Amino acid sequence: MRTYRIATIPGDGIGVDVTAEAVKVLDRVLPGISWTEFDWSCENYLRTGAMMPPDGPEQLAGFDAILLGAVGFPGVPDHISLWGLLIPLRRAFGQYVNLRPVRLLPGTESALRDRTADDLDILIVRENSEGEYSEIGGIHNPGRPDEFVLQESVFTRTGCERIIRYAFDRATERSGKLCSATKSNGLIHSMPYWDSVFERIAVEYPSVQTRQMHVDALAAEIVLHPDRLDVIVGSNLFGDILSDLAAAVTGGLGLAPSGNINPDADAPSMFEAVHGSAPDIAGLGIANPVAQILAGAMLLSHLGEDTAATAVDRAVRDVLAAGTVRTPDLGGPATTADLGTAIAARAAELA
Ligand code: NAI
Ligand code: MG
Fold it and tell me: Which parts form a coiled-coil structure per UniProt (predicted)?
């Protein structure tokens, strides 16, 4: 049996609660994981002046994977928590793919009530290292009437090519359908460039059926005709917005997992829920742990532990379909730990 060293960064708010449940479930399907917890968080920032120590990436580099809760909490500005931990780790470890599967799970009440699990099974491939999330820019003439702000986007040839190629590979493995999110009518430099790279790479994949849609129309398509979509590739900002939308459509942020993948496997990949630290329900013990548990399933699958990953995935589906243990966001009275324990027990039967 292989053993793994996995780092956890529970972070802030409900990140702490949902990570505990994911650890509980993974321990039931794959014995022999050695967990190391790092208390990097906004609390840590208020104590030490930094979200993580300067050698944070070095401390994590030797792990097989990282399970991240959520970072960000009232009292620390969001740009500090994001740029002090999440974004530097994604970049230090070359996690240029942000993989966000969106599925309608059984037994959950969706905004698309009449759709079934067959109609909505989308994989969002989000560029995770450049694009609109850049540090280039600044505020000019602050405090004066002619004050203005510039925020630049960065689209590199390497960055566009590798994420688009990754998406074509995933589309080839799945249904053979790929849709690219663009906005070439508004962003007249970056998006026509993105589109041209997409069209160039499409030639290498004649079997993949492609579409390019403006991101606003694509947002509507996710709600109106999710069955026409399979793999979606988008820039950093577009992928981020589309995946929150898609997650909400399937029944809430408490169900949507995400992986920050380094496809070259020369540094650890990092798995997390799409949601944040949910300060409005932090400390109540009622956060839905499913998103983080499914992030754990993605982590197992990334390590090549497909049997364990499938057991977790099926356990989530079975428990949700049974409908007896539900957290308040799913309309029930269960706690985070109740739902985590139920999924862990079912996963152990299946593993
Ligand atoms: P959020 O995702 O934390 O919460 C949005 C809404 O969804 C809230 O009403 C919350 O109660 C609900 N929600 C989220 N997860 C839930 C769960 N598992 N179960 C039940 N309900 C759930 O987003 P928000 O409020 O915009 O951000 C809060 C903080 O989290 C901010 O500081 C933000 O920067 C940070 N954040 C961190 C992320 C990360 O670490 N990757 C991602 C998104 C936000
Ligand atoms: Mg987001």
Answer: none
ipTM of predicted assembly, 2 dp: 0.95
Residue ranges, comma separated, of all CATH 3.40.50 domains in the chain are 128-249
Return the CATH number of the domain spanning residue range 1-107+253-351: 3.40.718.10
Q: What is the DSSP letter of 341?
A: H
Q: Which residues line ligand 1 (CB under 6 A)?
A: 14, 18, 70-73, 78, 81, 86, 253-254, 272, 275-281, 287-288, 291, 329
Angle, vertex CA 12, rays to CA 238 and CA 104, nearest 5: 45
Phi-psi region of 138 (alpha: psi -120 to 50; beta: other; left: phi over 0): left
pLDDT tier at 119, thresholds 50, 70, 90: confident
In the chain, residues under CATH classification 3.40.718.10 are: 1-107+253-351
CB 297 within 8 A of CB 347: no
212-221, 247-256, 299-308: segment of lowest average pLDDT:
247-256
The hierarchical CATH code for the domain 128-249 is 3.40.50
Q: Of the residues 183, 313, 329, 338, which is catalytic?
A: 183
Q: What is the pTM of this model?
A: 0.90
Among 17, 45, 96, 133, which one carries the catalytic annotation? 133
Is 244 part of the annotated catalytic residue set? yes
pLDDT of residue 108: 81
Q: 290-302 and 14-29 are packed helices; what angle lies between their axes, rounded to 10 degrees?
A: 50
The 10s digit of each residue's pLDDT in 129-173 is 999 999 999 999 999 999 999 999 999 999 999 999 999 999 999
Paired sense of beta strands 231-234 and 97-103, if any = unpaired
